[in-house]
Design brief:
By secondary structure, the chain is an alpha/beta fold. About 50% of the residues lie in helices and about 15% in strands.
Length: about 900
Amino acid sequence: MGQAPEAATAPESGPAVSGPWAVPAPGDAPTAVDAGRELGALTSLQVLRALDSGPRGLTDAVADARLRECGENTLPARRSVPWVVRFLRSVRDPFTAVLLCLGLVSALVASWGTASVITALAVVSCVLRSTGEHRADRSMTALRELVATTATVLRRTGDDAAPVAREVPVDQLVPGDVIRLGPGDLVPADVRLLRAVGMSVNQAVLTGESAAVAKYAVDVPETPGGDAFEQAQLCFQGSSIASGSGSAVVVATGARTRFAAGQGAVGPRGPSSFDRSVQGISWILIRFMLLTPPLVLMANAALRGRGLETLPFAVAVAVGLTPEMLPVIVTSCLARGASLLARQHGVIVKRLPALHDLGALEVLCLDKTGTLTQDLPRVDRALDAEGRDDREVLHWAAVNAWWALQLADLPAPEVLDEALLDASDGEEFLPYDGIAALPFDPVRRIATAVVRGPGRLGVDTLVVKGAVENVLERCALDDAERERLLASAAVLARDGARLLAVATAERPARKRAYTVADERGLTFRGFVTLRDALVPSAAAALSALAGTGVAVKVVTGDHPGTAARVCQDLGLDPGKVLTARDIDALTDAELVDAGRHTVVFARCTPEHKARVVRALRADGRVCGFLGDGVNDLPALYAADVGICPRDAVDVAREGADVVLTEHAKDLSAVEHALAAGRHSSGNIATYLRITLSSNLGNVIAMLGAGLLLPFLPMLPVQVLVQNLCFDAAQLAFAYDRPSAGVLKRPSALRAPDFLRFITGFGALNAVADLATFAVLAYAVHGPGGPDSETVFHSGWFVENLLTQSLVMLLLRTGRRAAEDGRTSPVRWAAGALAAVGLLLPVSPLGPLLGMAALPGFSYPLLLVVLGLYAVGLAAARRRYDSRCTRPW
């Protein structure tokens, strides 16, 4: 693109030639932005010659040759990841890696049962995760198939044949094709306008600007070398025709479009909130597990003279500290939550950990258009020249809109005209006769309708509406009055309104046609202000999000006044608005501080949006971004969780973690997703707190008992069976219902919080275990005791499972979760675990596991210990809740 017209070209009927549309050598391709600037410096004739094309389009033979050389007009597609590859990637999960390392160590010390169980749990976790993400990928493939479309292109069967307009799939377009565009059409490639009538283009997906931009086919560029999006003669893939029609020549397709450049400019995704949480908790576990076996070996060697024969016990203790079911529980919670979201609310979670990030969300950044406001404006007020409400101003504006539509034979009203017609009575244009119309012109920036009123024979009325400056300069006003009206318009614009100026003039009826020269000496009537219509559910959704502890930030490319007014109308205090210029003036540290108090960021480019998101994350907050355009891609990747609607552009859907398929960008769908995320995260957090604190207490007690007893406090096989029973019971957490308090606040898995919790409650658990040790020592070695290691092992086995049952009930989510009347799978699981603990030693399996029945008098003693432990546990929980600022 941008090649000089005299460059050598091949005849149309010959083979494809090298040219600006050909696939360049690696490293030589200009960027889409550079290409846009080069095109901006050429006339339409020069562009056609450089593309070896013409107003009649390409022949079929040339188009086929270029298609083979350039490839299809599709974006670089993300290949679908096979299920096997997803399974292997799941192995890299830190929790799974920890388990596999423990399984390897267990195998090295010939503890085959432990190694087999650990490996099986790791495999189950990987299968669950890879299956869930593979199912989400299939759903995304089905969505991609819904956006296939066609384009109207001029093609010829031969050099001398007449061009014929035909519909072809957009992926068959090639550079040099001449296409036709009309209202509602998507621009299928980067194009240069050859002809345009009243055309305006919506570029929101590329620039974030909600207002349509005027486009027209200038032959000599007005601002060569400027921003490609500011070139009136250029339209880009991904934008849509809001009004008007025209023809254009395709200048770039596929990977060379500005659309693709926006996708390619996105860097790799950084670690999300879930990734950081997993890493922090994994390192806590790794430190404990690396420290435990050496301590066991050294203590037994120093105090008991035992050698490597205690290695299997040391490994069993380390395994006992590990939450073996963690990958399975995490994956089950996330997969179940994602499945329910997809079925009940039409929300696709493409990456399972993103569900946790939704639950942990503290800040949600979103654009204004389509989320808080509808894409259509609505009339707000009609004001006369003195600023007073005047219905007659709206009357004349609606008359202009109606007759301009009828007389200019436009296919559909432009969005502003449609708003005027909707706000009018609907019958006020009927008494008039339409005489002529001068449609909106992007250069004049006004539209004129000539009508004749009832009983006004011989008099025509010119009704003019359009941009304030352009209408006022055609009115019969002195300089002072014109300046006053411009100042009034500026005040209205600062309040976030779109403005239309309305003027009229009376002319003697005549037979000759009206021209733009007649648009002089007008009488100014007033202003019509329009605002974007609010999404009906937006205010309630914002209030609901605020009630769940999520701060909303509006990050938009729109005018700051418009964005601030929308926030005010929705009950969201905008405070001080930061613009792109303000953001550029701030350092990263200053932007982090400003982000704490700023609600609206306006006039933002894609880079600004991403920088705002990174600043919010740098402040330690979990941040999500809701967007739908190419200009949102950097922010979608910069956020902990990227969210987009079903009707977003392809690359946004590919880059997002969560896709809203049924509610578009309705914030109520986000609210459902947040609740599901907190549900899953709450269950995961509960499992981690209960398991880690219980396991840590058992390990401390085992270490202490191992140093005081002349024998091992529990056999390795008993440790393994105890862990299996506890782990199986904890599967119930994947199906538990957290208390209402959990769903009211963000639920991030924060490693420091977990460390404080598990050390405190783990120490309390260890005290209960050591008290049990004293009771068992008395029961076994006291008067009338059996003096048997087997009985001691059995007693400790029973006590451990009973204490773990108590922990599952008393440390469930919610302060009163154990006392409420709801049926919970955790209650059943805790009851089953206690029953196993009591019955297994006296069952036929007891002798096989090295256990025997306990003396009858030991049960009351154990009951006393358990009662005291329950009281202490409840008191410690109440104290923890009163001090803890973060909910469960």
